[in-house]
Amino acid sequence: MHKDHSSLPVEDASTTIFRYMDFVSFYSLLVNQSLFFKRLDKYTDVLEGQLFDETVNEYFEFRKNIDPYASDEEAKTWTNNEAENIKLYKAWTLSNSWNIAEDENYAMWKIYLRGYTEGVAIRSTVGKLKEQLDNNKDFEFYSGRVKYGAVPKNDVNQFTISTNKRQPYIYENEYRAIVLHQFVPDADRRHAKWTVGAEVKVDVKELIDLIYVSPFSTPWFLNLLNRALSDHLPGFDHDHIVYSKIQDS
C-alpha cells in the first residue's frame, strides 16, 4: 500500500512523469507486469543515501556543542559513526525513479538508453503510480520529489535521505517511490533482504498513458514493439504509441 509522510510533500496527482528504458527493460516490465525497485546501494551514483559533507560538518559541530570537552578526534569519531549508521540503510531501501516533465527529454533518452537505439519512454502521472502502488499489498510505499542539495541535520531521517541527491543530478527532476526496512534480522546483524532489488506487481495497462518510441530507433522496431504489446498487454490501445518528436540521427 502507499502511504504519505510529512517529510515528503504530497505531489499533485495530475503531475506528468516519464520512465525511460531500453527495450529489454520494457519487455521485462510487460512480461513480469511489475516495476523493478532497486536497492539504493546498487545505483551508479555511489553517494546515494549518504550524508553530504555539509551535513557531516553539522553533526561534528553538534557533537562539539553538546560536549565542549570532547576533542576534535572524539567528535570526528562520533560523527563518522553516525554517518556510517545512516549509510547502512542504503542496502535496506528500495527505489523506483521517474522523471517529472510535461514532455520527453533528449538528455534522458541518451542517458537511460545507454547507447542502445531501441527503447521507449512510458508516460504516466503521479496519481496513477500511487494508485498502482496502493493496490500492491506486499510492500509499504512512500513517494515524493527528490531534493537536490544537503539535508539539514535536524531534517535527517530515512525519508529525506532516501529522496536526496547532489546538485549535478538536478537535470533528472526525479520523482521517487521508496520501500524502507528491507532487511532480514539475525542474532548478530541485519542483512539486506534483496540481492539487487524486488519486482513490484502493478497493472501496467492502467499505469501507462502513452508509450513514446525512441528517436534513435530503426523502422523495424515498431513492429517488434507492437508484437510485444499484443502478446503481453492485450487490449492496450496501440493509438497510445507515439513517435518521439526529436529528430536526431
Summarize the helices and strands and which ones pair or pack.
Layout: E1 16-22, H1 23-32, E2 34-39, H2 53-66, H3 72-88, E3 94-100, H4 106-113, E4 119-125, H5 126-135, E5 141-145, E6 147-148, H6 158-162, E7 164-165, E8 174-179, E9 183-185, E10 190-192, E11 197-201, H7 204-207, E12 210-213, H8 221-232, E13 241-243
* Largest sheet properties: 9 strands, mixed
The count of helical stretches stands at 8
- Strand count: 13
Structural class: alpha+beta
Rg over CA atoms, rounded to whole Å, is 20 Å
Task: Walk me through what this model shows.
The model has no long low-confidence stretch (mean pLDDT 92). This protein has helices at residues 23-32, 53-66, 72-88, 106-113, 126-135, 158-162, 204-207, 221-232, and strands at residues 16-22, 34-39, 94-100, 119-125, 141-145, 147-148, 164-165, 174-179, 183-185, 190-192, 197-201, 210-213, 241-243. The protein contains 8 helices and 13 strands. The chain is elongated, with a radius of gyration of 20 Å. With 249 residues, it is α+β, with helices and mostly antiparallel strands.
Give a short synopsis of this structure.
This is DUF2971 domain-containing protein. With 249 residues, the chain is α+β, with helices and mostly antiparallel strands.
Name the descriptors.
32% helix; alpha+beta; DUF2971 domain-containing protein; elongated; 249 residues
